[in-house]
Amino acid sequence: MKPHHLALIIGASTLPAAGAYAQSSAPAPAGEVMEVVVTATKVKTLASRTPVSLAVVSGDDLKANGAADTRRLAELIPNVQLGDGAQGGVEVTIRGIGANNNTEVGDPVVGINIDGIYLGRPQMAGAALYDVERVEVLRGPQGTLYGRNSTAGAINVITNKPISTFEGSASLGISSLKGKQGDVMLNLPVNGLLSFRGVLSALKRDGYIDSAHAPANSFSKDKSDKDNTSARLHALFRFAPGTTLLVSGDYAKDAGAGPGAVAYTTVQANPRGAAGRYVANAKVEGRYDVTGSGLTAEFNHGLGFADLTVLAAHREQERHLVYSVAEATSGNSNHSNWTQNSLETRLASNGTGPLQWVAGLYGFSEKGKPVVLQALGGNTLFFQRSMETKSVAAFGQASYAVANDIRLTAGLRQTQDQKGRVGCSYPFAYLNAQGRGDLTANTIITEAPDAAGLPPCPAANINNVPTQTWRELTYKLGADYNVTPETMVYASYATGFKAGGFNDGDLTVASNPRAVLYDPETLKSIELGLKGRYLQRRLQVSAALYSYDYTNLQVKTNTTCLNGVGTCAVTQNAGKAKSTGLEIEGRYKLTPAAQLSFGVGLTEAKYSSFTTQQGFNWTGLKLDRAPASSVNLGYSHSFNLTGDLTLTAYIGERYSAKYEFGNPANNTRFEQSAFNKTDVHLTVSSVVGDREWSVQAYARNLEDRNVITGFQASSGQNAMFLGEPRIVGVRATFKF
Q1: Would the CA dihedral through 94, 95, 97, 101 be positive or negative?
Q2: d(CA 540, CA 59)
Q3: What does the H/E/C string look like for 288-339?
């Protein structure tokens, strides 16, 4: 670990603070770090001149590092943690702030957006990263320009769009765990008006949590496997200079046995597992079947004084899960169908004067007909029959240059969120009388009817039909100063807001509405930053120092159900939490053929006031998944072999200090000890005209670390989700 400690002292850190942006950036002169154009502020700006904490990873970097989905971003960016959670959700933590309620009543705390479209369900957040131009990760509250559920930050995935020349690519790969992966892309310009770009992607891999050979069963699949297929089609209409319409459709299916969890006591007793693998002796064979699709239209038109953008989308998700936790003796079944619609209309100035601004309106609606089966006690099940969310917002942000090198920024967003749901508890005896069969306390329902197929709620038990509206004004104040033509410093004060929600429960809301309601969480943030390019632009560095104050931080726990029988998942509001820290990241072009990526993330994230529902005092304890330090180093070197043949070697190292998970229900804490991971790859490539091919051999997690990435308490167990083991493989790509 000494190299990591030394890197920490000298301020080294992660993979790219910047990456290629092929459609908006010209190649950098030999020996310079490439400048990157980003759209983090809803307009095009240079990353080195954007006064926010921003990390950018290019599509080429994603592919080179095997980032098949958003979970891999945790290996590339400091102060960002991603992992599996309960019910298949992706849990994102930025600067020590995250959310772990992946149920139908939960919301993410980091907004994930694909081509500007916010994804409402946590299960959608594992989006495949294929044919991607870049990923922008914004740290800190995005309460003005993004708003909804982005108190901790936002992840923006920007895909490649159609271009005016014909091109295509194909990629095939094999890896350990019988992994097979393939991508095909074709860009087809029809004429000056219309161009298409279509992509197909597939990934299949065995699981690394052994449930097929567990002593008590003979299941057909291991847990934490992958069987994913995805497709995307863009159609770009260029009606006139400055007037375009982009119509996009996408489809994705994630299938398999689902994420596997291992009892914490098992991980403690044998950190590597028998023969390097853990056994999950689950009660039921897992089923994970999530399909999502979307249709998006983006219209852009230049009005002279400003650019108009209208972005409309419709998305659907269907989810079928069957699972049991670790060594659980019972199983759970979750089935749901969701639709979301969103519309954003905004104007952005396009002049070169001292005033630059953007303003818009945003609307979002989400409807679900979930059938969530949750045992409230020995003989009762709770069903969520329907849920609905509506959110509307008006926002604006402006920057004014009070001098040639000094700009002031102010932004406002007024948000109104409204949620409603219908829930009902069913005694087994009542369901049996309605023809649902012989249900007992240990019954596992693997195929549930949709909401329309359920028997009516017992008249005395229509007891969870709340509706609530929350309104919040969030804002941002900032200033930035060009100290030199290549160095900028900035300061900002910003606020964030995440709507409240409802818990499950067997209680008449009219008698105690607060029993099922949890409040919104709010955030106040102060940030100081620096961005610069030095040594003839061979070195690019960015740094940020921040301090957060959270009020009513939403924390998921397991506690006695509201009817006093059994255990239920409940979200409660912690009193207050605080996170402070520092990030330094960048790239250094040692020679035209050699580059060093570096950075560091330092975080202290703690509850400053929190007493759990069971009366345990957690004040001063660390927040979940918040290591005190994380360090990444990457070095790549290219060698000209002969003619057009090039060999590129890369080694990347990630270190994380220890971090914790906590179960507020029984006052238990769990620890992932400090660890390091090494990634290496060798790539042979050739470029001749517009044809290019490459073959890459790679190894990820060379040390084969078993790292805890998530936690779930259920069925009386504390179960841990684990990251991928060592993965080795080879991948071939051909572009034309």
Answers
A1: positive
A2: 19
A3: EEEEEEEEEEEEEEECCCEEEEEEEEEEEEEEEEEECCCCCCCCEEEEEEEE
Pairing relationship of beta strands 332-349 and 306-323 according to DSSP bridges: antiparallel
Question: What is the SS3 assignment for 710?
Answer: strand
Distance CA 321, CA 350 (A): 48
CA distance 59 to 448: 41
Is-contact 244 228, C-beta < 8 A?
no
pLDDT score for 3: 37
Find the Cα–Cα–Cα–Cα dihedral 159, 162, 168, 171, rounded to 10°: 10
| Total residue count of the chain as it appears in this document | 736
The per-residue pLDDT for range 69-102, each reduced to its tens digit, is 777 787 788 888 887 766 666 788 899 888 776 6
How far apart, in whole angstroms, are the C-alpha atoms of residue 639 and residue 624? 43
The 3-state DSSP class for residue 115 equals coil
What span, in angstroms and rounded, lies between the C-alpha atoms of 322 and 447? 9
Q: Residue 405 has which token pair?
A: 């090198």
Per-residue pLDDT of 4-19, as tens digits, reads: 333 332 333 333 333 3
CA dist 323 and 285 (Å) reads 7
CA nearest neighbour of 584 among 6, 77, 72:
77
Instruction: Please check whether residue 476 is in contact with residue 494, taking contact to mean a CB–CB distance below 8 angstroms.
Output: yes
| Strand-strand pairing, 355-368 and 380-403 | antiparallel
562/572 Cα distance (integer angstroms)? 13
Per residue in 396-452, pLDDT tens? 999 999 998 999 999 999 999 999 887 777 776 776 676 655 555 445 454 544 545
State the average pLDDT over residues 159-183.
95
- Which pair of tokens denotes residue 417? 């969120």
The span from the CA of 557 to the CA of 572, in Å, is 7
Report residue 635 as tokens: 């070095």
* Cα atoms in the 13 Å half-sphere on the side-chain side of 723: 24
